[in-house]
Write a structure and sequence with these properties.
A two-stranded parallel ribbon has the order 1-2. Strands 3-4 form a two-stranded antiparallel ribbon. It is elongated and about 85 Å long. The chain is built from 16 helices and eight strands. It is mainly α. Strand 5 (199-202) and strand 6 form a beta hairpin.
């Protein structure tokens, strides 16, 4: 019981605070893949970011872009530049937005259009996201841009990476996103600070200061938006996704704490071990149930219950003998949520996407948060409540 209590306290311990005392500039050969938990840096390539890696970035791990991502980004930017040079009328490049999609914008006003898009959408409210959550938000946005489908320039993507590694985070109000049409307001605030407007987190001072002064202090170049880059920076579901990563991680811990509490109860009432027998649960096939039963056996032991205890109880109450059946559903649902979310962390979103250096691909509704929010998040909430 004492060992279980110690383990429970360990699992329930708070996440250590973020400690970055100086800007991190190095993009060294220490880089490994995003899936490698022993890595000193997370490589963002637009396809392999995991929930675990994202949480580590939130807590302070630096990131680098893969060489393949850089090549894709350069090709994607060529598509946008070709549209500008040839004068083809394309949404978000040389047209207005929304109701003004059919209004052509003069070539000399294209950059001002992108800047005004950010300013107009930076209309969030409420307390700001924590620095850790803002780091996760920026990380996911960089990863999605690294797919090379948005038309972002390599220079601006590098500036995003440098800001993340320097821990100079924008002031992002926590309220204001509709989700269904993208996290426009939060992503606009994320971009605004890196343009040198609004406020940025000063990691040495420990609070928000004027964005332009923070950029100068840490030797960071402000973003300089070209054609389509404002749209590329705010069209997406990255706030939803980054917050859900935290929710999924917490759900895993809550589920495991439920099993530990059940094991403590089992010891307290001198329960029957046989309920967690490997043969019984493998016959049911469900993976979550099998895993939960195995975890319960690791806590209460695998020895058969002696006859004296069996004669007293015959069988335990549902709340004990059916722990694997109930917790198995919780485990399976969380695993399903992780699978969907991992796809979304590496999914291209936006009004339209570049396909190769000669083509663009239209998209309809690809900035929405349907996968992330309207389905599995509600399911996850139900499971956590039940647990």
């Amino acid at each position: 019981v004492h060992l279980l209590a110690v383990r429970a306290r360990t699992l329930h311990s708070p996440v250590p605070p973020l400690h970055i005392t100086s800007p991190i500039r190095s993009e060294s050969a220490m880089a490994l893949t995003a899936r490698d938990s022993s890595s000193k840096v997370v490589v963002l390539d637009g396809s392999s970011l995991t929930i675990e890696s994202l949480l580590r970035v939130g807590r302070g791990m630096p990131v680098v872009l893969s060489d393949e991502a850089r090549e894709r980004v350069a090709r994607g930017r060529e598509v946008v530049q070709k549209i500008v040079d040839e004068g083809e009328m394309v949404y978000g490049v040389n047209t207005g937005f929304g109701h003004f999609a059919k209004v052509r914008v003069n070539k000399e006003d294209i950059c001002a259009l992108q800047l005004n898009l950010i300013r107009s959408h930076a209309a969030g409210t409420g307390v700001p996201l924590t620095v850790e959550r803002t780091r996760r938000l920026l990380c996911v946005r960089i990863n999605v841009l690294a797919k090379g489908r948005s038309g972002i320039s390599q220079e601006n993507l590098d500036r995003l990476v440098q800001a993340l590694n320097s821990n100079c985070m924008s002031y992002v109000p926590s309220q204001g996103t509709l989700g269904a049409s993208g996290d426009l307001a939060p992503l606009a605030h994320l971009t605004l600070g890196l343009l040198g407007e609004g406020k940025l987190w000063d990691p040495l001072e420990g609070h928000y200061l004027d964005a332009s002064s923070v950029l100068r202090k840490y030797g960071l170049e402000p973003l300089s938006l070209g054609a389509k880059e404002g749209l590329a920076l705010i069209n997406g579901t990255q706030l939803i996704s980054s917050l859900l990563a935290e929710a999924v991680s917490r759900s895993e811990r809550v589920a495991q704490m439920g099993e530990i509490a059940a094991a403590l109860t089992h010891f307290a009432v001198n329960g029957i071990h046989d309920a967690y027998c490997k043969i019984i649960h493998e016959a049911r096939v469900h993976r979550g149930q099998i895993e939960s039963a195995a975890f319960m056996r690791s806590l209460v032991g695998e020895r058969p219950t002696d006859d004296i205890v069996k004669r007293k109880h015959i069988q335990d109450a549902y709340s004990l003998r059916c722990v694997p059946q109930v917790q198995g559903i919780v485990r399976d649902t969380i695993e399903f949520a992780k699978r969907i979310l991992t796809v979304e962390l590496n999914a291209a979103t936006g009004a339209w996407k570049t396909q190769n250096k000669n083509r663009k691909q239209s998209a309809r509704g690809e900035c929405g948060g349907v996968h992330c929010f309207q389905f599995f998040m509600r399911t996850l909430c139900i499971v956590r409540t039940h647990d």
